[in-house]
Fold this sequence. Notes:
The protein is an alpha+beta fold. Helix content is 24%, strand content 26%.
Amino acid sequence: xxxxxxxxxxxxxxxxxxxxxxxxxxxxxxxxxxxxxxxxxxxxxxxxxxxxxxxxxxxxxxxxxxxxxxxxxxxxxxxxxxxxxxxxxxxxxxxxxxxxxxxxxxxxxxxxxxxxxxxxxxxxxxxxxxxxxxxxxxxxxxxxxxxxxxxxxxxxxxxxxxxxxxxxxxxxxxxxxxxxxxxxxxxxxxxxxxxxxxxxxxxxxxxxxxxxxxxxxxxxxxxxxxxxxxxxxxxxxxxxxxxxxxxxxxxxxxxxxxxxxxxxxxxxxxxxxxxxxxxxxxxxxxxxxxxxxxxxxxxxxxxxxxxxxxxxxxxxxxxxxxxxxxxxxxxxxxxxxxxxxxxxxxxxxxxxxxxxxxxxxxxxxxxxxxxxxxxxxxxxxxxxxxxxxxxxxxxxxxxxxxxxxxxxxxxxxxxxxxxxxxxxxxxxxxxxxxxxxxxxxxxxxxxxxxxxxxxxxxxxxxxxxxxxxxxxxxxxxxxxxxxxxxxxxxxxxxxxxxxxxxxxxxxxxxxxxxxxxxxxxxxxxxxxxxxxxxxxxxxxxxxxxxxxxxxxxxxxxxxxxxxxxxxxxxxxxxxxxxxxxxxxxxxxxxxxxxxxxxxxxxxxxxxxxxxxxxxxxxxxxxxxxxxxxxxxxxxxxxxxxxxxxxxxxxxxxxxxxxxxxxxxxxxxxxxxxxxxxxxxxxxxxxxxxxxxxxxx
Length: 696
């Protein structure tokens, strides 16, 4: 199996030891005669990296963190809520027109807030509470609203929550962002034959991944819960920071972590009709994609150790169910199985009825759940079932993390990561596994009634059809609801039906991509039915992006995709398109974010990666590198030998539709230009003796 040639491009993030981090972009090749050419490219770019390292020799990690701390202080000074010295939390929300406001936070439920008439600011103090991360939102006149002043949010298909991060008063927490080497986050897209469309996932690469190009790594497939997106284990579960910290302590093995999307059918151009969340797996789209599409993609494009002893699978809630079922059904591929707040089918007879053989194949079978979780009864019953079958497992229980929560998910992750791919530690844990606690008859059970309460029939919004885009919002008690759209000069009034659902049809913007929200009796609200949020610094709008558009991943078919990586230290994004089988100097475009944008905006709203993927695959543009970096590390400004940096500034265009058009135009113009050649080095290069004798 070819892992491909690794082309080094500058990502500009600083690691410890005053070294620059390099982004590894994989371009698979089947022709060996190109190997020397690509090794030359690597060597050429590496020389530039050395020069940049000299430029940065005075810029230590300590100074970088001080700089970041200053930036974060500015952001946090305007963010809500406020963590007090006594462990309590004061929530603030400004709204002059609201009649009533409550805060709904996971550690305290719903609580009324009081308004200061002189400022229009509502507030309430709650707690004290244990340091951790807690989802919360405001209930404004009966409508759930994210905190518009908080940059941290909970990615989800449905509910829209902000995140409260309460720091430890002494010491640190496992998920804290510490002064340690950090891994890398990459967003991948790949054509899934099982899905019949493009699927998505997130990949974490350990800090040392870019330093030793011969080293291969084990892989942990980690799946989020029902209605969660693939981002949740990253933005809420903080798996990257937890693992960074454990690696710095030498308490875990280096590994690649892959975060799949547990509900891939929702990515189809026309998703299936809404139904109750799936609870049984096997033969479903997710399971087929995991084994037949995602795993082969990861093993082709990353340096992985491809055997069962070096693969793990785990997940939270529904993700735990998916992980257990697929792990147990594929014990020739996985030997480490982890379930957090979940259980799975007892109908896998080849596994459960052959305990001796099953126990030999499983290096770690780890099960954790809170005794106050609504799934506790089901999870305990499953543990007891395993015990009766003679199948060994490790069991962990909590009673102080508010039930079925991501506080538990993070805690369980912290307990299991040190055991993965560590035979001695996992053997010891399995040896000390205890039987399931006896049933009391009082355990909570996950029933159809609980399912219906937690997952009511969803509202479809936006809905695309030939007649236009239908936007819907349920607010039975609202007096007035409007659609606020960045591409329209004024808000559009919506109409209410007998069920309290407000709607409007927009016919003029069918293939435009734009930010929008609802204005409910004067309060802005993101669309709770749309999982795509704009990652703005302030209020987070919803994103309308027609799945039938060729610039939407859903409609792109079986093409090669580039990858987008995020440098969390420097807050910048880097994308590199798929590379051809012949050596090509990629075009270089700097995408400057707008005033209220983040490093994600050009990709999450601007669709820069999807646009480039489409145009490159159709031969309308050349392979390219896109970045939101300031490029302030480049000696002599933005120009380097062999690089012609084009610049596109978001603030030069008032809407994202116009920004996307500008990017399309620029990429197409680049496609019409003569192919750039690699610069020569010392009179050799490609034209002279650059590849004669010996080479690289």
